[in-house]
Design goal:
heterodimer; A: alpha/beta; 12 strands; B: alpha/beta; 8-stranded mixed β-sheet; 7-stranded mixed β-sheet; 14% strand
């Protein structure tokens, strides 16, 4: 069975790629992923905001109360070498690169234009095979228009593309008024691929303590419907790579997304839930299904049920009621 | 050797230029003292010699160098007149005018010997007079004074300024920094000199061409123009605009500026910093202003140099920090304004007296000048002749440090008193009282029905001393109540202080006028009731959010009326006993802790001495009482000797008996009665507490501590464990846990923390407890009560969060809780009395860990720093720390579960 696929110009053994998650922070996990058959690995994100916050936090914590009292002008030893920047991330990245044979896709969430470009360059130098720009933000400014925000993203893409030679993918949230239009803009500005979609932390409320808890909820297979729709829609509209992420737990989940038009399917929750070795299970499930249905390769089924190739293209555009409610009624009546 | 030598040489040069004939010989090698070379170095023309020692040899014939000099000429042909004198003791100033006084003394026919200079000794009359106005400082030296807060970066900026001028110009530079005795809201005064010749003026600046006032809050504390030279420049950082700022200056300052024809510049540095993303960091803006207006360097050159220095200084902290500071440089000048001076002072603002006018005479006459920074002017006669100082004086120094203060929401408060317990400065108090006491209360005074059943019919008030608060926020974080409509609010919330100051001052005074609840009516078994006890440790100079002082305050509430404290040197001796004011206080009866400080190496023995002395006095008093029993009526002797003083009521009754006894003794005419009168108070139970930090208890004083605990004497030890030498700036101690970064452990400590509690338990005769107030306050209370009640030695090891942990102090109590939840800190009590009951003496009081040690480490800079500096090793070290915690907990659990018959672990 030929599972190979091409993503961002990278030739991959299978379409199964662990997406950005805390798992990649440990070198041992990365090796386990490779052993379990990961075709490539997306690194956890380097967050500029986090780096900046860490710097300030540590600076504040280590300097408070200094130069106030004659006997204790400082409270901590002066450190020459302070890894409060991206050093830890970059070291880890280059170490992973030298230990693994599969491609490594770094992930970056910048905050400032300078941050996006500087870190992108450093990531390339550390040996990443590709870079995923994690356009992750919750826009709360009532005076800022969608157009303005999109323009900002395109500027970042332009600047990063001008700095690096490795392929650049964009990881998007689903919350764009005209996703298709924006996706095309990204393609025109040089994006080599899109990753659909980012899952946000969803705040929750603890009724007892009256506190807001930032909550990362693991996805279920149901979550794949959102990327499924958009990948199917975008498949023929764009000429760049598409990666599906969210809700891929079984081999059949991956197959659905491939048939919608994804080049790779990325896994996170499934691995956090079932362990890294679950990758192997998904791969076997894919092989079994394909064998049963006499498919020979992933390339053969890729995009088979995209909006353009499927028997009912309108189904992907239908947003409410017509079929969905109808089928629901049929079941309960 | 010879620390005053430079100033003396400078003065001698000045005097010789005026045709005086004086000289200075600086001895640089003291031992061996080379008499021959010493004689050779003194010209034959020397007629009289004043030998200055910076030491005091009480009871000796003279100070050491003076005696050596006498010896050097003894039996030789030369015999200059030699007198000795003392200078510079207690960091007293040694200025040219004092040096001139020494020369003038030598020039008299009968020079005074054994004199002192720099101290006004009006008791033994040894001091030489000098003219405070006489000065030799010339205009070629640029002198600048900067008033800042420790937290605002003034000192750091001035050190940079010195470096810039020293490295980039032909000028010589000098800097000296005077720090406060307080740790919270400390004032720093930077003295900077720049000049074309090496600077030999080793004394403070009394008249400066430039004065920088970096915080407008100083305006109401002292006259910032006082030390400004005529024609000098005052730079003020103030949020008030150029059109309004003049009105904010107190009248004396306005007058000073006008009569000195000063130039007055204004900057809102906080605004500039805020705009550049550096809220609270005013140092760069103030430095730019100094260079812009002082003229010590050409303007453009100065700015270019500051920019270079910023790039170097902040490079390690990241490009954003560099960029933000550079932005400050660019923006500052646009915000710098010269304010024209009117011809007359019109100020209505006043300089606040250093202490309240209602303070006792001693506080007003002696403490107040010290608070105002004029302590050196006090004559010797002003100080208590027996070396003791009155307690409870901190309450008179209203420091008004807080921008924000806690405000009580009486409607939703459940009266748990947790905020009262954790307040490090005893600023939050509660009282319960009869409703009729509210007559005459200010309209804004808050009061509610007391919720506790035992205080039914009584009123409850929680009051904040807003003028003493340091704005640490521990109280808010520890409050368990949430507002039903606005969840961000609790039953105590921070609000801006200035609008509340006057109102709450009146409320506080009224609150103080309410009577304290009779101690015998206070149930001490729960925090909510116990906290109503009056704290006898208040308004100390400890850091905002200090983790140690809440324990001391608790101690003072529980046993303060009968407590003696032997305090090891360290933070607790600084905030506890450093002048000008004393936080240890007394109640309305005059009872309060007697406190003294000893050294690291002998504090436990020092405290044992208290006990031995008290026991001896009690023993002697008992003997005398026995002897006088027949002459005293009502069986009082037997009642006193057999008294049960195990609780508050018993102690109270004994005090009444002793008062009776004293009254009866005054009618007896015999030696025994006189002797007993002097020591009768020893018949009332006393509580001896030995207090210190981990640097003392785990390290330097450990030998003595072990000895004293092993002695079986009835002394209690409160070890405030910050796991680091806090007072001297964060050096590693044996209490430092594995993985923590500290000085002398900059790569993180690689050995586990010493288990002092376990060592103490091994004797089987010592009450031992390990507590963490933020984790389980009721447990802390119980341990304190049990320890004091135990008839033998007790050791309480108290987790104290600290500024040296690299934490946001308002979360200190939360960190304590996480330390316990993770198993990093164990709560336990080892009570030898339980053995007799057939129970295991050890009780492990913390539950099974609910989180990992790593989660706790993530909350503290001291651990996080290791990950930043040694990322490769940090993971291993943290894993070992987890292992330490797991093994230790398992071991304690095993000991606590052992058969009850086991005498001890």
């Amino acid at each position: 069975m030929n599972l190979s696929t091409t993503y961002l110009g990278l030739k991959l053994r299978t379409p199964l790629v662990p997406s950005a998650s805390p798992l990649s922070k440990k070198l041992d996990n990365l090796k386990l992923m490779e052993d379990a058959g990961a075709a490539a690995i997306v690194f956890h994100s380097l967050f500029e905001e986090q780096i900046r916050a860490d710097r300030f936090e540590l600076e504040n914590e280590l300097t408070q109360g200094t130069h106030s009292y004659a006997e204790s002008l400082t409270y901590f030893p002066a450190q020459e070498d302070f890894a409060v920047g991206p050093e830890t991330y970059l070291d880890h990245l280059s170490r992973a690169k030298s230990s693994l044979d599969i491609p490594i896709i770094a992930s970056l969430n910048g905050e400032t234009v300078g941050g996006w470009t500087r870190f992108a360059r450093q990531i390339e130098q550390a040996g990443a095979d590709a870079l995923e720009l994690n356009f992750y933000s919750v826009p709360t400014d009532a005076d800022r228009s969608a157009e303005d925000i999109e323009r900002g993203y395109l500027t970042i893409l332009d600047m990063v593309k001008a700095q690096v030679k490795i392929p650049v993918a964009i990881k998007l949230s689903p919350f764009f008024t005209s996703l298709t239009h924006f996706a095309r803009q990204l393609e025109r500005h040089g994006a080599d691929g899109l990753v659909l979609f980012n899952r946000f932390f969803q705040p929750n409320i603890d009724l007892e303590s009256g506190e807001i808890i930032p909550h990362a909820q693991l996805s279920t297979s149901g979550a794949l419907r959102l990327p499924l729709r958009w990948i199917a829609i975008l498949y023929h509209k764009l000429g760049i790579s598409l990666a599906a992420t969210s809700g891929i737990h079984r081999g059949t989940d991956a197959l659905k997304l491939l048939m919608a038009g994804a080049d790779v399917t990325m896994l996170c929750s499934a691995l956090l839930q079932h362990g890294i070795s679950h990758l192997r299970v998904v791969e076997h499930e894919m092989i079994d299904w394909m064998a049963q249905h006499e498919y020979e390769s992933v390339e053969q089924l890729k995009g088979r049920l995209s909006q353009q190739n499927c028997p009912d293209p309108a189904a992907f555009e239908r947003a409410q009621y017509v079929l969905a409610v109808g089928s629901f009624h049929t079941r309960i009546l | 050797m010879g620390s005053g030598g430079e100033a003396a040489c400078e003065t001698a040069d000045f005097l010789n230029a005026q045709d005086e004939r004086v000289g200075v010989l600086q001895v640089r090698l003291y031992r061996p003292f080379d008499e021959r070379r010493f004689r050779a170095a003194l010209p034959a023309s020397v007629k009289a010699l004043a030998v200055l020692d910076r030491t005091k040899e009480p009871g000796g014939p003279g100070e050491p160098l003076y005696l050596d000099c006498l010896q050097a000429f003894y039996g030789t042909e030369r015999s200059p007149k030699i007198v000795g004198g003392r200078y510079g003791l207690s960091s007293k100033e040694f200025t040219p005018t004092m040096i001139k006084a020494v020369f003038d003394n030598l020039a008299t026919a009968e020079p005074r010997n054994h004199f002192t200079i720099g101290i006004h000794d009006d008791v033994s009359g040894t001091s030489l007079d000098y003219d405070p106005a006489w000065s030799i400082e010339g205009d070629d030296v640029f002198r600048a004074l900067f008033y800042g807060l420790g937290s605002d970066g003034t000192v750091g900026a001035n050190k940079e300024t010195i470096k810039i001028i020293g490295e980039n110009t032909e000028h010589f530079a000098q800097g000296y920094f005077v720090y406060d005795s307080k740790k919270a809201g400390a004032i720093t005064i930077s003295h900077l000199r720049f000049g074309p010749r090496p600077i030999r003026s080793s004394y403070l600046i009394t008249e400066a061409q430039f004065v920088g006032c970096h915080q407008s809050l100083f305006l109401e504390r002292f006259d910032v123009s006082e030390r400004l030279a005529p024609g000098g420049i005052l730079l003020l950082n103030s949020p008030h605009g150029a059109d309004r700022v003049w009105e904010t200056l107190p009248e004396p300052t306005q007058r000073g500026l006008i009569t000195k024809r000063a130039r007055f510049f204004l900057i809102d540095a906080a605004k500039v910093a805020r705009e550049c993303g550096l809220a609270g960091r005013i140092n760069t803006a103030m430095q730019v202003c100094f260079f812009a207006i002082s003229g010590v360097l050409p303007h453009d050159e100065a700015l270019a140099t500051i920019r270079d220095s910023i790039r170097k200084t902040y490079a390690k902290k990241g490009e954003e920090v560099v960029a933000m500071n550079l932005a400050v440089v660019d923006r500052t000048l646009a915000h710098l304004h010269e304010v024209p001076l009117p011809s007359e002072s019109t100020g209505r603002a006043k300089i606040r007296p250093p202490v309240s006018e209602e303070a006792p005479v001693f506080v007003r006459r002696v403490i107040a000048p010290m608070v105002a920074g004029r302590g050196d002017t006090l004559p010797v006669s002003a100080l208590p002749c027996d070396g003791t100082f009155p307690t409870g004086t901190a309450r008179w120094e209203k420091r008004n440090l807080a921008n924000e203060v806690p405000v009580w929401d009486a409607d939703i408060c459940i009266q748990c008193a947790k905020c009262v317990m954790v307040c490090p400065h005893a600023v939050i108090r509660n009282k319960v009282y009869e409703p009729e006491r509210l007559v005459g209360a200010p309209l804004t005074f808050k009061s509610r029905d007391a919720r506790l059943p035992e205080w039914k019919e009584l009123k409850f008030t929680l009051q904040v001393a807003v003028e003493d608060c340091t704005s640490c926020g521990l109280c808010v974080e520890v409050c368990p109540v949430r507002n039903k409509s606005e969840a961000r609010l609790r039953a105590i919330n921070m609000e801006p202080q200035p609008p509340l100051r006057e109102v709450e001052r009146a409320n506080w005074n009224f609150f103080l006028s309410l009577p304290e609840l009779d101690r015998t009516r206070v149930p001490t078994d729960h925090i909510r009731s116990q906290q109503v006890q009056q704290p006898l440790f208040e308004f100390s100079g400890a850091c905002a959010g200090c983790g140690e002082t809440p324990y001391l305050k608790l101690l003072s509430q529980l046993f303060g009326d009968r407590m003696l404290v032997a305090n090891a040197t360290g933070c607790s001796s600084i905030y506890g006993g450093n002048l000008p004011t004393t936080p240890w206080a007394h109640d309305s009866q005059g009872r309060g802790p007697a406190w003294s400080n000893s050294l690291f190496e002998d504090n436990a023995e020092f405290g044992l001495g208290f006990r031995v002395s008290l026991d001896k006095q009690r023993e002697f008093a008992s003997e005398l009482l026995h002897g006088l029993a027949d002459e005293l009526g009502d069986g009082i002797a037997d009642a006193i000797l057999a008294a049960d003083q195990s609780d508050e009521a018993g102690i109270q009754e004994q005090r009444e008996r002793v008062a009776d006894l004293k009254a009866q003794l005054s009618t007896l005419n015999c030696d025994a009665a006189r002797r007993l009168e002097a020591i009768a108070d020893a018949l009332v139970r006393k509580s001896v507490w030995i207090v210190g930090g981990d640097g003392w208890g785990y390290d330097i004083g450990y030998g003595g501590l072990d000895h004293v605990l092993a002695s079986g004497a009835n002394v209690k030890v409160l070890l405030l464990d910050t796991e680091v030498y806090s007072n001297t700036g964060g050096q590693c101690s044996k209490a430092t846990p594995r993985g923590a970064v500290a000085k002398f452990a900059s790569a993180g400590k690689r050995a586990p923390k010493k288990d002092l509690g376990l060592i103490a338990m091994s004797y089987g005769t010592i009450y031992v407890a390990s507590v963490a107030m933020g984790a389980k306050d009721e447990h802390t209370l119980r341990a304190f009560l049990e320890a004091e009640n135990y008839d033998g030695p007790a050791l309480i090891i108290a987790y104290s969060h600290c500024i040296a942990h690299g934490i946001e102090m308002k979360y200190g109590m939360r960190n304590q809780k996480v330390a316990v939840d993770s198993g990093q800190w164990l709560l336990y009590r080892y009570d030898p009395r339980r053995v007799a009951q057939g129970e295991n003496p050890l009780q492990l009081d913390s539950s099974t860990p609910r989180t990992k040690v790593r989660d706790y480490f993530e909350l503290e800079g001291r651990f996080k720093m290791l990950r930043r500096t040694h990322p490769d090793e940090a993971a291993d070290v943290f894993q070992q720390a987890q292992h330490d915690a797991d093994v230790r907990r398992a071991f304690f659990a095993q000991l606590a579960a052992a058969a009850p018959s086991a005498k001890h672990p």
